[in-house]
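CRISPR-associated protein, Csx13 family: structure, please.
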Amino acid sequence: MLARKKRGGKSSVLIATLGTEPQVVTITLDKLLEQKYLVEKVVVIYTSDNNVSNGLATLKQEFSQNENYSNITLTCEPVQHNNVILSDFTSEEALNALFRTIYKVVRDEKKSGRIVHLSISGGRKVMGVVATVVAQLLFGEEDKLWYLITKNWKAGCERKFHLEQHEEAWLIDMPVIRWSEADTFMEQVAQLNDPKEISIWYKKLTKKANQQKLSEFVEQHLGERERQLLKLVCKGLSNEEIAREMYIEKQTVANHLQNINNKLRDFLGKEDMKINRKVLITMFMPIFESED
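Here you go.
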């Protein structure tokens, strides 16, 4: 039996999407154990495909017979919708079910205090994409997203659960843009059970942040006359109508608008941004409506 020591002082879990090649799970696990991670649990996320089911059966057998895995618990988590295990992801309902499954597994393991190692090497490509999104939502600094690369081995080759010494494989630590620094966001995410709820909440949060940013632009970067003119633009007035309202020349209105556009591009850091009346109304109407 392999002697294993804790790395980083924490228990770890390997969560893996499963396809037709179950050895991807065991090779990834072996690589993590070589790196001295104390992996005490493996969670396999699977579909109802016959080849996947056969691979899952052999994977269970390998865990029951391999002494190196004697202290590791294997859990199998199906992707289900309406209590039916899915075979593919060809509908929005199926994709949402996949999202919920991976999200729940990762969230529950995070709550248990384990370091999460998420393998996206097995299964359909969409499983890896969704798993990556979940990692962005829930990962902390110690969690890892892994992709396994093997040399001189292709899908369909003779099944080998473990590599020989002369055989090569690389476990790639995939970069993840994490939300762990956004405390408010993470606290809210941890309380929500459905990823769609998170998406809705995040859109509201982003919209509010954008409005605050644009309010800052209006209040701190525009002069009084420019603010007055922009408000009239958002009310739908033409340049001629604005000129009469402000007792200025029509050309002066055009000059003010050009200055506002230039300041906005500079403020947003988008020098090539195309700004017209419609863009200004869309961006700033909510700001002025909240003032009235």
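Notes: Residues 195-221 form the longest helix (27 residues).
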